[in-house]
Write a structure and sequence with these properties.
By secondary structure, the chain is an alpha+beta fold. Helix 8 crosses helix 9. The strands form 4 sheets. Strands 1, 2, 11, 12, 13, 14 and 15 form a 7-stranded mixed β-sheet that branches. Strands 4, 5, 7, 8 and 9 form a 5-stranded antiparallel β-sheet that branches. A 3-stranded mixed β-sheet has the order 6-3-10. The chain contains 14 helices and 17 strands.
Amino acid sequence: MSCSRSAPPASAAWRSLALRRLLGATLVGSLALAAPLAHAAGPGASDPTLVLFELYYAGKDYSKTPEYVEKVQAALIKEGGFDVVARADAEKPIREKFPASQQQTIDAKAEEIAKMVSAAENKFYTIGPSAAIDELRQAQTMLQRLVDAMSLTDELKKQYIQTQMLLALVYLRNNTKDKAEEVVRQVVRQVGNDPSINTDNYHPDVVALFRDIYRELSAQRNGTITVRSNPPAAEVYLNGLKQEMKTPATFEGLFPGEVLLQVRKDGKESRVRKVIVKSGEPQEFDIDLDFEAALNFDNQHFGLTFVDELDRKRNLPKFAARLGELVDADYVAVVGLGEGNGEDQLEGYLVHVETEKLVRGTAMPTRSNVVAKRRTTQMARYILFEDAPTVAYKPWYENTLGWVLTGVGVAGGVLGTIFYLGYQDDKEIAECVPPEDGSANTCRPYASRLDAKDSAESERSLAYASWGVGGAALIGGILAFALMEDEDLDAPVRPRVPGSTGKSSASVTPVVTPDGGGISASFSF
């Protein structure tokens, strides 16, 4: 048996081949497009994280630094390349680890608290306990803030005891002994068995309660903490009270409960630590005083403060890396205003957290009283790409110095010409010779001719001097226009490649032709 099959028409064969080629081209095009699209779709998962902090120098607290950093952060977010950690997310772990100090206007606060306690005490004895309790609670809160800021001076200590003991008495008189006991426990933990707490100074009932609680807590008084610092030999403050021993030191026999710890040396002070002392559980603390003294986190600042440029060079990478670890960031950028060669400048430094290495740093001349948009954009791009900052200059006709010098040159030339014309006139008068043939004498008298001669000499000197100064100024103006460039800080920042948006894109299109198929691709960077 034989069978035969007719060949398909040539046009059908061409369409079949073309279709296969089209499918192949589409597959190739899809694969080619997948890489850039995957990169574009996935930066959120793969981009390194970056957190920004402010840079300050001691004694030079530029008010525009936070605004500069805010603008740089906005530019970084716009450019892409880093997942930027929001300030609110960075604040939380830092403030939990290193509470902000509140040592401002202490004297004024102490005076205000003293007046409140005095008024409350007067109400207590004239009206009754309930009339005094609100003011005493407010005074107690204010005092506790000062205590938390490690500011318990002798005067504040006295006020603290007075306020707490009076508040405890009010609670006793209001039949809320549990609250009175809580207040007295705070006093015992804060000041211990202070000799001023006696019946000569305070009511016998509250003194008796204090002694009972002191005996109760003394039975548990076996807490121990060891404090070391870098550098050593730093003063130790427990609950705001200076201790006799310096670091390294071990303090035993502490009351259980919260203890405020701080070390100080050579004008530097660590952050305040709230330590929970537990009976029979020794605790150890290593405090890097230089690092904690550099921390500058309060309502106005969010960063690091260095003594000078040398201090910044030596410590910025490791200090920034420690902050980066705390907020779980891959990189830290520290940006702020400083000074170089006698002029203000915007400084920026990028630090790799894991290696504690300075990746790059730069300083750009700027103005400290305004935020230059150009500078913030340049700083953001430097942090991202390490591109040399794009510098734009004002046009030649905006060169103020050039115009001033040119004006002086023209004025010198005009004045010189005026003086020279005067010289010519006076010279003619001075050189006039009376006729000897008896004809009419047109010359001025001899005295006038002598005066004209003196004037001519002066005018000639002034003419030459004016021409000299004018000529030098004119040459200086020409050189200023030709050689001097005045940077335009307000000029828009040009893209890294002219006509480019700075962002990459790609497009791939399958193409079918009578002879086959392929793809057409275009890329821009």
